[in-house]
Structure formats: structure tokens, C-alpha cells
Design brief:
about 450 residues, five-stranded antiparallel beta sheet, alpha+beta, 11 helices, five-stranded mixed beta sheet, globular
């Protein structure tokens, strides 16, 4: 592939577009490309090749995204075509088109209700054949359940497997995660593709900016023969997914989830980790949501050694890692839209407000109101604005801030907030319980220093 044939459309570098090899995104540290590998499992050689490509064609920074994709940073107009050629040479095939996500161990986890992979493959083919114009960031989740389900992943369209006396059915729903999405229909496997494509067609008919949240559920349900059953499924979804970081026993297999701090790692460190994990017996690696890399093929003895290797390279590898509840974007160092250093802010939260980080709530630190790192609502969102760092409770980065402090006053604000939580917290109380019973005005006063 030559630079001439690999044309980069710089006009697509805008908010609302997904950065790809053919349409990279301009950021504060150069061009960014997001890769969705076709293979569910990557070899050590694949990851080492990605590390080498990131060094040679970018600034060496690699990110695992919240949806379990790979991002390479610091690319240029000249290096992107060479990156594409080297990916092809390494045999790393990436997906294009609408993102259709399945659990990272789909088809492997015996506790899942149904294997989501065949449904997802058929849906990708149907969407490609339809050649419809859809929103660039449209996302579809096909979740068969299991230990590492995608129940907390927000999507425009969701297909969630339901276990019934008649076997597995699929709940078709729009606009949210498993609990907040709006149910459209409950469908047997042989009707899933047609039913989902009816929703996809409705999105296309409404215009290229239309997202799942914009559609009318009663209208969609009326056009599907099983639509009247859809609402009954809502109460059947109660438990959330297990966080992928840490040790898991899945179908007699040991799986270790490791995550680079806040999702970002230099290629040299990733390569060192992969080599160490291979020496511990790792056979393959799977990208997973929550910025995680799943390490498969380890024995009990090898797993202990693998955890030690991951910790030495600065990766989180236990379910007690404090920062795993924090979602952050690249911040001012890597994004022209960001107004402050999100990595330093996350470190301040870990150091001074650890009471928020027990895993019972999500913390979102966003460099700007776009909220790219965590589109869903979070218990606490800290968002960069022209006036400083705003505080949002139970909302999104785009929501109005309850209070704002100057960027240079952020650390003292977090210290005050951390002290408030420590003083009010009952023994063994979760962060969620503490936040739920604390008046927002009290939290705002601490953040602003008005106490």
C-alpha cells in the first residue's frame, strides 16, 4: 500500500468521528489511530509487533481504550501509511465499519448464556451489505453474558442474551447500558438479525447524526412481532459484570487481567511485559473493556509470577488496584481540547481521595466536556473547563458543573474532599453508600473550600 493509495481524509478529524487508519484524529501530540483487531486472541508476537510499530511510526505511546481497542499516538501524515503497511506485514487484521462488540471471552466462557460471536459476525455482514450511512461513532453490543460480560457498556443498540425455559432469547434494546437501555423486543436467534437491522435502518433513515437514544421505542416495537415481550426483560437484569482486572477462574482456565495505569503505556514497557508474561507461561492475550489485557494460559504458579512481572512494569493486576475505578482521557498533554493534566489529577485522587476508589462507584476525569473516556454517567466527574475543573455528581462531563475550582487549586480541593469522606465514612461503608447519604451541597462546599 503506497502513500498515494492510502489517502487520509483530514476533513473527518472532528468531534463525533472515530479515528481510524484512513481517518486519523489530530490531537495535541500528533495524529491518533484506533485499531480494532479482528482476532479475539492476540499472540505475544502480535503485541510485540504493535509495540515496534508504535515506536517507529508514532511517539511510542499505546492506549487500551475503555471498549478494549488499541490506540497509537503521535503519528504523522507520512507515518500513517507506513503503519498500515506494517500491520498488514505482521498479519494483524483490523476491523472497519460499525463497532459491534462482544465479551472478550465470548464462545470460551462456559457460564455465558449464549455465544455472541456468530450473531455479531452475521450482524457485521448484514450492515456492510446494506451500505447505509450511519453515525460515525455508532456502537452495537452483543452480550451473551458470562463472567466478563458487557453489561455496563453503553451502546446505541444492545442485544443481551436471556435464559428462558425455551432456551436463549435476545433482548433488543437501544441507548444505554444493560440496566438503562430501553427495550424494543425479545427475539429468538433466527429473528435477531432482521430485528436489529430494522433498528439500524431506522437510524439511517433518521439521518447520519442519529443515535440509539434518539429513536422512539413504541414505534420500533410496533414493527416487530415480538415487541410486546421486550419490556418484560428489564427486571431480569440485576447483577453487574466483574471488573476484568485481576485473577479469574473461567471454565477451568486461569485468566489474569492486567491494565496499564489509566490505560496508557509506552511501547518499551509493553514489550517488556509481554516478554515476561510469555516466560511465565502466557499463551495468548485478549483485549478487554476497562482498558484491560487478559492473559490466558497461565498455571497457578505462573500466575503468581505474572502478577509480579506486571507490577514491576507498572501495570495494575489485582482487584484492589485503586486507580481501576478511574476513567481519564489523554488530557492536556495529548489532546488540544483538554484544559488540564488528567493524569496528574488522577494521581491526586488516588493519593488524597482513596475513599472513592473501592470499586463501588465510577470516577471520571475529563479534560473537556466531550467526555470521551467515559460517555456514560459517573458518580463523580471532574471536568476541565475554561474556568478550571468542574465537579459533576451523578452525571456526564457535558452536564453543568455544581462547582468549579481553578486548575491550580485542584489538588487542595481533592484533599478537602478526601478529608470529608474520611471523616464521614462509617466502618466498612462503601463509597456508593457514603455518596448516596451525603448531601451534594456538603460535597460542593468541601470541594470549593467553603466549610
Amino acid at each position: 500500500m503506497t502513500a498515494a493509495s492510502h489517502r487520509i481524509d483530514t476533513n473527518t478529524l472532528r468531534r463525533g468521528a472515530c479515528p481510524s487508519i484512513t481517518a486519523p484524529m489530530q490531537t495535541g501530540d500528533g495524529l491518533l489511530v484506533r485499531l480494532r483487531p479482528v482476532s479475539a486472541a492476540l499472540s505475544a508476537q502480535d503485541l510485540l509487533a504493535l509495540a515496534d510499530i508504535a515506536r517507529r511510526h508514532g511517539n511510542g505511546l499505546i492506549e487500551i481504550t475503555a471498549r478494549g481497542n488499541i490506540q497509537l499516538r503521535g503519528l504523522t501524515d507520512a507515518s500513517v501509511p507506513r503503519l498500515a503497511a506494517d500491520l498488514a506485514a505482521a498479519g494483524i487484521e483490523t476491523r472497519t465499519g460499525v463497532a459491534v462488540e462482544v465479551p472478550p471471552l465470548s464462545g470460551v466462557d462456559p457460564s455465558e448464556i449464549a455465544d455472541a460471536t456468530p450473531i455479531a459476525d452475521a450482524l457485521r455482514n448484514a450492515i456492510a451489505a446494506a451500505a447505509l450511512t450511519l453515525a460515525p461513532k455508532l456502537a452495537i453490543v452483543v452480550d451473551g453474558g458470562g463472567v466478563l460480560s458487557l453489561s455496563d457498556m453503553v451502546a446505541d443498540i444492545r442485544l443481551d442474551a436471556i435464559e428462558t425455559n425455551e432456551g436463549a432469547l435476545w433482548r433488543l434494546a437501544i441507548g444505554g447500558d444493560r440496566e438503562t437501555t430501553r427495550s424494543v423486543a425479545l427475539l429468538p436467534s433466527d429473528a435477531v438479525i432482521d430485528g436489529t437491522m430494522a433498528v439500524v435502518s431506522a437510524l439511517a433513515a433518521a439521518g447520519p447524526a442519529t443515535r440509539g437514544r434518539d429513536l422512539d421505542v413504541p414505534t420500533l416495537s410496533a414493527n416487530l412481532s415480538e415487541g410486546d415481550k421486550g419490556q418484560e426483560a428489564i427486571s431480569w437484569f440485576k447483577s453487574g459484570p466483574r471488573h476484568p482486572v485481576g485473577k479469574h477462574h473461567i471454565g477451568g482456565r486461569l485468566v489474569l487481567g492486567v491494565a496499564p495505569a489509566y490505560g496508557q503505556v509506552h511501547a518499551d514497557r509493553l514489550a517488556a511485559l509481554v516478554q515476561s508474561l510469555s516466560a511465565c507461561g502466557a499463551m495468548e492475550f485478549c483485549l478487554a473493556p476497562h482498558r484491560t489485557l487478559l492473559v490466558c494460559g497461565l498455571s497457578e504458579e505462573g500466575l503468581a509470577a505474572a502478577q509480579g512481572a506486571a507490577e514491576r512494569e507498572g501495570f495494575w493486576c489485582t482487584d484492589k488496584a485503586p486507580g481501576r475505578s478511574v476513567s481519564i482521557c489523554a488530557g492536556a498533554a495529548g489532546c488540544a481540547s483538554a484544559s488540564f493534566d488528567t493524569h496528574a489529577a488522577a494521581d491526586a485522587v488516588v493519593a488524597h481521595a482513596a475513599g472513592l476508589l473501592d470499586g463501588s462507584v465510577d470516577i471520571h476525569i475529563s479534560g473537556c466536556p466531550k467526555g470521551c473516556a467515559h460517555p456514560a454517567r459517573a458518580a463523580v466527574t471532574l471536568c476541565g473547563t475554561a474556568d478550571g475543573v468542574g465537579l459533576v455528581l451523578n452525571g456526564k462531563a457535558s452536564d453543568p458543573a455544581l462547582a468549579t475550582v481553578p486548575a491550580d487549586g485542584f489538588v487542595p480541593a481533592i484533599q478537602r474532599l478526601g478529608a470529608l469522606l474520611r471523616n464521614r465514612r462509617a466502618e466498612s461503608e462503601t463509597a456508593k453508600s457514603l455518596l448516596d447519604r451525603t448531601a451534594p451541597d456538603t460535597i460542593v462546599s468541601a470541594y470549593q473550600g467553603h466549610q
